[in-house]
Amino acid sequence: MTKLNLYVVRHGQTYFNIYNKLQGWSNSPLTQKGIDGAKTTGERLADVHFDAAYCSDTTRAMDTAKLILAANKASEVTDPITAPFFREEFYGYFEGNDMSQAWYLAGAPHGLPTFKDIVAKYSIGKAKDYLKDADPFHQAENNDEYWQRVDQGFELIRSNNTLKDNDNVLLISHGNTLLSLMERYAGGKYDLSTRPANGSLTRLTLTDDDIVVESYNQ
């Protein structure tokens, strides 16, 4: 069984992050703090030999990946492999909307006016389902649609025949995706009421048929 060491980093801070706007498939640039944070994460990982790098095809993820790889002293990898499979949850009609307002519209009909309320009673997956229900176009991803896409991203990494057992892979990810991964694979080990920090590091072991969480949001 091949095991790969995934270094999963949340992208640097963006303008939508500081404006408290939902940012799934939509995009906003990294702030200067986001650029500096990505460089700091790159310094933390400068001596890790990466055998491949992946990210979504959003500029915030690609820019973060390139800043981290530029700071790396141990690898020959200079550019990430991009794929839509690694994108954040698609929020449909609510893309770019105020985050608190969007989750209110999703959860309030169920007596749960905030994202944290929905997650506390049910799950992050249920929050996805509620948001799709509230979307007047019903184009936001529900939980099943989300995982059908994201799972293809991990299969893309597994199918890379240049990677060998115990190789290191950099993956630039997104806030709700990291929360979703922890909910699905961490077995309740972490407090998911707080979002992972921009530039934070999460360690996963990717096997042929599973994902094991080694550490989160460090």
Automatic annotation (TrEMBL):
Molecular functions per Gene Ontology: fructose-2,6-bisphosphate 2-phosphatase activity
Alphabetical list of InterPro entries matching this protein: His_Pase_superF_clade-1, His_PPase_superfam, Phosphoglycerate_Mutase
Species annotation: Secundilactobacillus paracollinoides
Biological processes, Gene Ontology terms: negative regulation of glycolytic process; regulation of pentose-phosphate shunt
Binding residue positions for substrate: 10-17, 60, 88-91
One Pfam match: His_Phos_1
The organism's place on the tree of life at top rank: Bacteria
Protein name, entry field: Fructose-2,6-bisphosphatase
Signal peptide residue numbers: none
CC terms in the record's Gene Ontology section: cytosol
Record's keyword terms, sorted: Hydrolase
Catalytic site positions: 11, 88
Keyword presence, Hydrolase: yes
Listed SMART domains: PGAM
